[in-house]
Specification:
This protein is mostly helical. It has 9 helices and no strands. GO terms for molecular function: phosphatidylglycerophosphatase activity. It holds the Pfam family PgpA.
């Protein structure tokens, strides 16, 4: 029997890995506050939730988290184990998974993702440090991609361009 993935399952997976919706909202706020003068952090919530409601986002999130967990447990085959565990810079598959999320709401998501992936603000910096034996090779990019997609969704909605749900 196939287990149905839900937004609740995605939220639980994020929380289990130490990521809150509020931290993702903070990233969206940082990305968009310059362009939306009246923006509040709470205004970012529905955009984050809409992105997380997408099945392809849930699939990417759960897949990335599972690969990170397997790396923590040393259960990946070599050389993949060492590559994922060390978050090797030239690996790039973690970014490819994240790009599947970024592309949902248009090209602005790509520039937003490039920015947060480079500077690693907020929760992304914490995840990228891999403290306490945790591996977040996929999760830091996926969280950045969720924020970038939510930022893009917010930007499109403010421009009156209409946003796909």
């Amino acid at each position: 029997m196939i287990h149905k993935i839900t937004i609740e399952l995605a939220l639980e997976a994020l929380e289990d890995r130490g990521v809150t919706i509020e931290e993702i909202m903070d990233l969206v706020y940082e990305l968009q506050s310059t362009y939306v003068p009246d923006l509040t952090k709470e205004m970012c919530r529905p955009h984050v939730m809409k992105v997380l409601a997408k099945r392809e986002v849930q699939n990417a999130l759960l897949t990335g988290i599972e690969l990170d967990r397997l790396a923590e447990q040393g259960k990946l085959s070599s050389p993949l184990q060492e590559i994922v565990q060390s978050d090797e810079g030239l690996y790039g598959i973690d970014e490819i998974v994240a790009l599947s999320i970024v592309n949902i709401y248009g090209s602005i998501g790509l520039t937003n993702f490039g920015y947060v992936d480079k500077i690693k603000p907020g929760i992304l910096g914490k995840l990228n440090k891999h403290k306490g034996g945790k591996c977040h090779t996929f999760l830091d990019d996926i969280v950045g991609a969720i924020a970038a997609a939510a930022s893009s969704r917010l930007a499109h909605s403010r421009e009156g361009a209409g946003v796909r749900d």
